[in-house]
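Data card: per-record layout.
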Amino acid sequence: MAQQVDILLTTLNARFMHSAFGLRYLLANLEELEARAKVIEFTIQEQTLNIAEQLLKYQAKIIGLSVYIWNIREITDIVTVIKQISPETVIVLGGPEVGHYPDIPDICELADFVISGPGEKSFRELCRQILTQSQPKTKYIDGIATDLAELTLPYHLYNEEDIRNRLIYVEASRGCPFKCEFCLSALDKTATAFPLESFLTEMDALWQRGVRNFKFIDRTFNLKVSTSIRILEFFLERMTDDLYLHFEVVPDNLPDKLKEALKRFPPNSLQFEIGIQTFDSDIQTLISRKQNNDKTRENIRWLREHTGAHLHTDLIFGLPSDTLDNFAESFNQLVALNPHEIQLGILKRLRGAPLNRHNDNFALNYNPQAPYNILSTSTIDFMTMQRVNRFARFWDMIGNSGRFINTLPLILADDAFARFMLVSERLFEISGSTWKIALKRLFELLFVVLTEDLAIDEQSVKDHLKLDYARAGVKGIPDYENLPSLNKPAKAGVANKRQRYHG
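The structure for this 503-residue chain is written out next.
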């Protein structure tokens, strides 16, 4: 029997390796109520009734749930069940998916209270009121921002299992000064840093406990370069073979002092997430994105040539006024810069995001079901959107996986987007799916597509695929000799560990 608690904080992570950083902040700042509260995490793959059973075992008076675009469906089902079985349980919702009244999902009707914005102070005060039977009459509560220096940092709440099995999220700052309309950070007034020395003290404590993979969630890690360098020097002093740091960086802000610090890190110890989204200056202006494209290209080249950092870059398809040809141009420019990964995202409607002001003018038509992906626009029809969805999936399998580093240049040649689109469409035509294609089968299908549709010399294709096949460590030998022509359609028939495969 689970020990009874008054306050239960929970969410559904996308994967077990993820950790609910926000819930740990709420727990750490409950003050006298912390001893009466507990965090429990699940994943979206688990069964609704099992999760409800686990939650109700604690007999909590209050259950707070963190709601995101990726778990809204599952949490809706769970809250529905809990309210059916235990209607007296007070349900409090928070998170970006429910924090933009009146643009809210149906789950808010089931909840007792909904907190928007920062919750450390507001959730604590609400719990005090509920537990003293003086709860507010207002259902929708605006979160109150707290001076970062006054927050209790939550890093001590990562337990040993977290350190062994989960990503350890950390943040040196909150907010973002930029106003890119597709992002909820556009609602922030500015970026604010945590007191640096106390933050580094917490990082040292984590390092002493054995944490070697730090994922910074700061939206703009290199915004204040002096702070960035201080943090980098802190980790350089503690460098080990297995230390790995993930940062999201502003692509056009890489001054010489920062470059000098980055060059000191050994290969495979840094990962940079670099949001490009588009190289089209007109679209950038339309969506209030400030980005020096020339400086961005220059910096990505420099990072690739002078550091061992793993470069994860992002593009978004479906932005207002975007077209297939225009997106192809951004893709080709980014391929030419040779990052390790190009994440091809399809635009999604985020509640509260300023981009929603363009919905009517550009006929932005979104899926009504989460994750609210764009279905069509005034310049991109539904069929084209589907083609790019498949392109993105096959690109993840072939371009991003790192398993085809020898063969990929053969595919892309002098027109990366057009050639890979041909490969994508032919693979889908033959397999009937972008999923459940065994790796050995993918090698075999690629051989025929490259030789038949791209007219590449058979021996050259075999030589390149052979090198990649050996690196991938796949069992069995591809049967290139007895494959049917892909011009005769056949019947339709994991999370990438990318860093292992990338060169």
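Known properties of this structure: Residues 222 and 228 are 6 Å apart (CA to CA). The longest helix spans residues 382-400.

See the next section for split statistics.
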